[in-house]
Every structure is written in C-alpha cells, then in structure tokens.
Amino acid sequence: HLPNPETSSSLPTPPDSKSDPPPASPDKLQPNNENPATPPSEKIPRDSPQNTPKALASNPPPPILAVPTLNLEEPIETPPVAIRPAEQSMNGSTPQVASTSTSTSRNESTPDVKSGGLNPTSQSTPSLSQPPTAPKTSSLMPPPPPPISRLQPNPQPRPSGGLAPPRVSSSPRTPLSSAASARLAPSGSTGLSTSTLAPTPLSLKKNSSSKRVILEPGYSPLDWAALAGNPKNQLRGVGLPPGLLRVTPSMLKTQNGRKGRDAWTSYQGKVYNISPYLPYHPGGKGELLRGAGKDSGKLFQEIHPWVNWDGILGECMVGILVSENDVQAENALDAMD
Ligand code: HEM
Questions:
Q1: CA of 228 to the centre of ligand 1 (A)
Q2: 207 part of a folded domain
Q3: Ligand 1 midpoint to CA 282 (Å)
Q4: Ligand 1 geometric centre to CA of 281 (Å)
Q5: Are residues 15 and 148 in the same domain?
Q6: Which atom of ligand 1 is nearest the CA belonging to 307?
Q7: Which residue among 23, 228, 246, 254 is least enclosed by CB atoms within 10 Å?
Q8: pTM, full prediction
Q9: pLDDT by residue (tens digit) across 247-258?
Q10: Are residue 152 and residue 233 in the same domain, yes or no?
Q11: What is the extent of the structural domain holding 226?
Q12: Which atom of ligand 1 lies at the shortest distance from residue 277's CA?
C-alpha cells in the first residue's frame, strides 16, 4: 500500500508539479481526481486559470500513473476486490459471531492489514463514496476507485461499466439458468415425442410377420363378442352337467374335436371349449386346434401373450383341470357318456 500512495503523490508532481509549488498538491489532488473523473475536461482546463492548467499537466500523468497503480494492486487484490464486496456483506454478519469462523476467507485479507483490517475490508464499498471526501485517507482510498474508473473508461459510455459487474456476479448465473432451462426443454420434449412414436414401428413389424387369416363374413371379433354375450348360446357345449366339471388330463385328451366331440383345451388350470371359437380365431382354425385335447398355455404365451384369454373365452369355460386319480372326474365323464 505504501508504494501506491507514494506513486500517486509523485504522479501529480513529475512534469507539471515541478513548475508548480508542491504544497498545492493536496488541493491539486482533488482537482486531479475531479479531472480524471471527467476525461473530456482537457479542453476546459486550458481556458480555466492556473489551477486548471495544472490540472492539464497533471491530467495526462494521473491516468497513466493511475493505471500502473491499479495494475500493481489488481494482480494481487483485484480478484479479492471483486469477491470482497460479496464477502464483506457476509462478513458483516459473521465477524460479530467469531473470528475463527472466517479463517478461510480472512487468510488472504488479514495478513495485509490487521489494524486497517476493517478499513481495507470496507475500502471497496466506502471507497466509492469516500474519494471525493478526504485526500489523506484517499491515499488508501484511491486504489479502489481506480479499478472502478479503469473498468469505467472502457465502458464509460455505459456498456462495459454495466457489463463488468454483471459478468462477475449476475452474468454467469443468468446464462446458466437460461442454458439449463433451454437444454432441459428441448431434451424433454424430444424424449416424449420419440416415446410416443415408438409403438407404431412395433405394430408394423407385427403386421409384416402376421399369420392372421381372413375370417368368413359374420365371424369378426365383434360377432364373437355378440355371440358370447348371450348365455343362451351354451358355448360350453350341449349335454353338459350344470356347474363346472372336474376334468382330468385323460378326459381332456379325448376332447380333441374329432368324432363329433368338441375341442377342449386347458389354460392356467381351467378347461375351455374352443370349438365355438374356431371360426372366429384370427389365427385360423388349424392354429387354434393345435391346443385341442391338451394345455395351450405354452403356445398361447409364445404367440400372443397380450390376448385376454378369459375376456374372449370366459363363456366357454367347461371346468377345472384335476389330477388323474380324481374319482369325481371319472363320474363326470361317465355322466357325459
Ligand atoms: C393353441 C392355441 C393357439 C394358437 C396356436 C394360436 C395361434 C394364433 C396365431 C398364429 C395368430 C396370428 C398371429 C399373427 O397376427 O401373426 C393368432 C392370433 C390371435 N389369436 Fe390365437 N392361437 C391360439 C389360441 C388362441 C385363443 C385360445 C384365443 C382366444 C382366447 C386366441 C385369440 C387370438 C387373437 C385375438 C388373435 C389376434 C391377435 C392379434 O392380432 O393381435 N388364440 N393366434
């Protein structure tokens, strides 16, 4: 910090101050500060009295000298300076609690100035208001304003000054949020659209390898539904005892659709009469008869597990499949004969 104020004090002196008395330097500092604040003022000082010409001579050096002072501080302090204002607000609440808690953030700042720890920490914020107020304190104070002014000169018109602060704090936040939202929106929409389109290709594949047959007129699924919806049609078969039969595997085997017998099949422990459904089966009579007299569970699941068996053949249920030693099943079989 010492070299900086010295350089700042020497800055006004070199060219112009040599001709002018040094005592005026404190007063000059203020006009100098005012002048750099208004760079276009160079024309004005020429017209103005001695004070103004001094300012003219001092004007060129201060901006030049102010730049090096800023450079010296910036490499070391500039990064913390930008961070400090935010940290200071944090420290404002934390310091009262305990010094130990802020050990990490203070490690860099504390070694520089302990006595002025409060001042330097507050420098950045107060510096903005203080530069016009006090010259002596300004020795420490000038450093903070130059970085700001330095940022301003480039953007002074407006762009950089407004851009610089947002770049540090707000700019990264906004792009991230916007980018994140933008990324999320397209990805989500595309995923949903593709998922909705997925089913169609599957249906196309099924049609390509379809073994469906052309059903005779009057044997559409709707016709079957109308037929099964009427219990009077006795889809279980004619001459059967009331209630569910106990069917053994041997009994099932005899019901193969030959010799005037209805075709039965079992599925998940239940026995169905599939003869009424033969002309309605989309896969053809031959395919359906592959399960006649035995269990069709395996074939059914291999070909069309999505088909609701009971929803179609519920009215065709003859009974339940039982073990071969079931006496009641034999009696039922005798009753059928
Ligand atoms: C041994 C038993 C069975 C065999 C071997 C069989 C075979 C087939 C075959 C090859 C198809 C044509 C599939 C395609 O589109 O390429 C089919 C379709 C169909 N079968 Fe079966 N089937 C059997 C039992 C049944 C039963 C018991 C029912 C009714 C409960 C049934 C209802 C259907 C239906 C609704 C379709 C049309 C499915 C669709 O197009 O999505 N099948 N079956």
A1: 17
A2: no
A3: 6
A4: 6
A5: yes
A6: 35
A7: 23
A8: 0.47
A9: 999 999 999 999
A10: no
A11: 221-336
A12: 29
